[in-house]
Amino acid sequence: QVQLVESGGGSVQAGGSLRLSCAASGSIFSINAMGWYRQAPGKQREWVAAISTGGITGYADSVKGRFTISRDNAKNTVYLQMNSLKPEDTAVYYCKLDSLRSYWGQGTQFTVSS
Predict the structure, then answer these.
(1) What is the DSSP letter of 88?
(2) How far is 73 from 8, CA to CA, in rounded Å?
(3) Contact 26, 1 (CB under 8 A)
(4) Is-contact 63 85, C-beta < 8 A?
(5) CA of residue 75 relative to chain centroid, distance
(6) How far are the Cα atoms of 13, 27, 40, 102 from residue 83, in angstroms, in the given order?
(7) Which listed site, 6, 72, 104, 110, has its alpha carbon 20 to 30 Å from 26?
(8) Closest Cα partner for 88 from 18, 49, 21, 40?
(9) What are the mean pLDDT values of the chain's consecutive 10-residue runs (114 residues total)?
(10) For residue 103, what are the contacts with CB-CB under 8 A and spacing of at least 6?
């Protein structure tokens, strides 16, 4: 079994920065991509960013240029550095790990106040 634990959520004012972390543990045989999704109140979960084992990254248009995803393969940890935050970034952020199957974290709440 694989466990994903997110941390770093909280609240920040618009224009501020925050970093989320997601640490994977358990029976991890191989990891393909790791990524972040978010779900705002009343909306569907949406993809935010992803990073492959080789470091190839992808971002949703809404966060491109403001968010940076990175990973530490030795620690099985993925990070999401968020800058120039906007109120519309407010959501529950979920970490996802793609291996032989996909795993999800429990989510971490993040609020941006105007």
Answers:
(1) G
(2) 19
(3) yes
(4) no
(5) 16
(6) 11, 33, 18, 28
(7) 110
(8) 40
(9) 90 96 84 92 96 94 98 91 97 93 93 94
(10) 2, 3, 4, 24, 96, 97
